[in-house]
Amino acid sequence: MAKKCASGIMAALATATFGADYACADAPFNFSPFSTSSSAPQAAPEPAKSPSEPAAPEPTKPRNDNPRTTSSGFDPEALERGAKALREISHSSHAKKVFEVMKKQEETRQQELTAKAAEFKAMQAQAETETKRVVYDEQKKLAQQQAQTKSQMARYEDELARKRLQAENEHQRARNQELVKMQEESAMKQEAARRATEEQIQAQHRQTEREKAELERETIRVRAFAEAEGRAHEAKLAEDVNRRMLVERANAEREKWVAAINTTFDHIGGGLRAILTDQNKLIVAVGGVTALAAGVYTTREGARVIWSYVDRILGQPSLIRESSRGKYPWSGLFSRSMSTRSRGANSSGSENLNGFGDVILHPSLQKRIEQLANATANTKAHQAPFRNMLFYGPPGTGKTMAARELARKSGLDYALMTGGDVAPLGSQAVTKIHQLFDWAKKSKRGLLLFIDEADAFLCERNKTYMSEAQRSALNALLFRTGDQSKDIVLALATNRPGDLDSAVADRIDEVLEFPLPGEDERFKLLKLYLNKYIAQAGEREPGLFSHLFKKQQKQIEVKGLNDDILKEAATKMEGFSGREIAKLMASVQAAVYGSENCMLDPNLFREVVDYKVAEHQQRRKLAGQ
Ligand SMILES: Nc1ncnc2c1ncn2[C@@H]1O[C@H](COP(=O)(O)OP(=O)(O)OP(=O)(O)O)[C@@H](O)[C@H]1O
């Protein structure tokens, strides 16, 4: 009973002090007699519910039919009930007990509250932990999502980059293709431009060639004109001398002939008178004259037929202009003996001077030719095939002379033909070439066939102006020289080696350049021709009957002409060929013969040299050199 009272008082007091809410919270002390609020215990705060869970029904509050709440919300009824209960307790004998029970209850309730608080705290801590865990989970999920998003982004970016790269590659490839196309187009354009330029150059080249040919023709014309003039001048100089000599000789001859004619007519007159007076003598004379005429005619025609036959079988081909073999086999014996004699006579002169006949060459070139001559001689001795040669260089530099000397030194026969002789032969050319090679093969010693002006005959086959006959002749020569020969050495000479057909060039084993003579060579040439045309002018040529057939030249007196003057002239004559130097000396000779006392002195020599040097320079100017 005391316990019940205590609870009731407590509840009443609590309700009065803190209102209904507090009364609800204190559910365990809710004694029914004093309680105005709900007797159902207040539930502990629940953990946060997920929004998906259905909302729990609101706890129903006890109905208060007589509310006595003041305007400020205070309910005095509970206090009244509490005061009533207190009064009852104070009048009760068990008041003390009641208070003790109340105290105990209060303590118990305090403990319970503490436990509740602890539980609540634990729950709160758990809720916090849970919240943290949820937050952590959420963060983890977020991090995972972020990582996933990031990786997706990276993949996406990677893909984008790949696509971009691919697109760039495509673009680059397209550009490259375009570039290649442009380059091809540009190369084609360049090629076309190059072809056009080449054609232009070729046209220009052809034009230049035409102009050059024209210039050459003009130069030749001018040169011929100058030479004719020179010859006329020389002839004029020599004319006076000759006229004087002729007049003297003619007077003597006239007297001799007048005497001879007088004697002959005396004899003929006597004979005719005897024949005409005697008839028998007349018949015999007429018959004799007729028989003699018939005999002479028959013999002459017969000899002509036989001679042409012999000539065809044994004679030298018409293409050969000069040969050491002579026109007929037997003439070789004669000509060789003569040449031996002449060389013997010469040996005191030029042969000793330079060891190479009359040819003056640069020492290195001379040495090379001597080596070639030795090699050719040995080749013949060992029956090995000969080596073909090409001599090239400006006109009149001694190519022909060197070839002749080479043949002589190597012990071969020598034959010279000129390329320019082939074209006029027309369709006969091929036959003549074969005839020439057949003839050359007959030489027992081996033959050096020298073709001068080789470019006129052996030029490039595809040249348009080359005639069919000329082309065939060249083919015939190529055919005959296709293999290396043990009988014939082919020596070609040309001023234009570049014009030779490539097949001809292919047959050449040795190429020698003959340059214009240097100062030393010019000096030696001057000395050589001074000796030949001036010092030996009055001497007879060696030969069996030369004194019968050749007119003797007048001897020339040389005064004061020494080596220094010759050297001075050699210095002035820069650019002169050997032929020009020889001609200069011939002019000097003519000038000497034109002089009154037939004497050569330094003044006359210098005069001619200066005149010739000026003429040479004029010619060069005309030729555009
Ligand atoms: N090196 C030389 N030594 C001596 N004389 C020479 C020399 N070069 C030329 N001559 C003189 O010039 C003349 C012509 O020489 P040669 O015929 O050998 O010349 P080339 O070079 O064959 O000329 P082209 O090319 O015109 O045929 C000779 O007769 C000679 O008088």
Give your account of this protein's structure.
Residues 385-518 form the AAA+ ATPase domain. Residues 33-95 are annotated as: Disordered. Residues 103-255 form a coiled coil. The chain has 625 residues and is mainly α. Among the domains are: 2-43 and 71-140, no CATH class; 321-515, Rossmann fold (3-Layer(aba) Sandwich), CATH 3.40.50; 516-625, Helicase, Ruva Protein, domain 3. The chain is 66% helix and 6% strand. It is built from 16 helices and eight strands. The chain has helices spanning 2-25, 77-91, 95-277, 279-314, 329-346, 350-354, 363-381, 399-410, 429-441, 468-480, 502-506, 519-535, 546-549, 563-572, 578-594, 602-622, and strands at residues 320-323, 389-392, 413-418, 447-452, 488-494, 510-513, 557-558, 599-600. The strands form two sheets. A six-stranded mixed β-sheet has the order 1-3-4-5-2-6. Helix 1 (2-25) runs antiparallel to helix 2 (77-91), helix 3 packs parallel to helix 15 and helix 12 crosses helix 14. The longest helix is centred in the first third of the chain and has 183 residues, at 95-277. The radius of gyration is 72 Å and the shape is rod-shaped. It starts with a helix and ends with a helix. Residues 16-57 and 334-353 have low confidence and may be disordered. The protein binds adenosine-5'-triphosphate. Adenosine-5'-triphosphate is lined by residues 358-361, 395-401, 452, 493, 495, 514, 525, 578-579, 582.
